[in-house]
Amino acid sequence: MSGSGIPENQVFSLDAVRLAVDPAEHPWRLADQAAIEAHWAREQVERPFLFNGTILLHRGLRLDEGVISGISHRAPYAAILHWVKTQPQADVWHLFGSAVMLSSDGAMMLIRMAARTANAGKVYAPAGTLDDSDIKDGRVDVEGCILREAMEETGYDLSQAEPERGLLAWRQGGRVAVFRRFQLDEPASVLTARIRDHIATGVEDEIEDVVVVRRPGDAGPTMPPYMRALVEFHFHGGADR
Asked: pTM of the entire structure?
């Protein structure tokens, strides 16, 4: 991973993400299969509501002239849970997309995850692990995933919003968060009401509530490092779009 050229622990500009899908198994997943299965068995006891669906893990990620490229492999969700727990020193990456929704009156709209999720209580922008539905013609559509997650978690179709010209990204070890900021034409009070109405429908039961952020401290202590970095960047000099 050291030769990836992707900066660590800082928000940086990005033009695109290009991930090609390899139908073979991820080498790390094959090598650690027994440990992955053992970890999943423990998770099933502690959190039986988790679903072992198909997600995408990556290898060979590198940054070149504003583009992150690499290879993606299908894997069970159990694999990424084990990866999060062990943080192996191997060529395995977790890259995901995040939709940063900005209100007309200067707020950032985040969500708090519900109790029956792997990230219970965490506060961040609508986001999710890449999966099978994000594969288009043998490549991974990260920006499509960003739109999909926003729609599922907030009910908003961000394809109709004003997007930032470029992407932003942040990396720590093998975790890479890719952000797209969207400027909406409604104030935070209206966005909050509409998102809460969406949550109340029960269509997306992974979300507990909306969190309105107007300054870095507003999100509270459960915001993960990648989101904390983006909030600091946005409110302290990185808000030009």
From this structure: 0.93
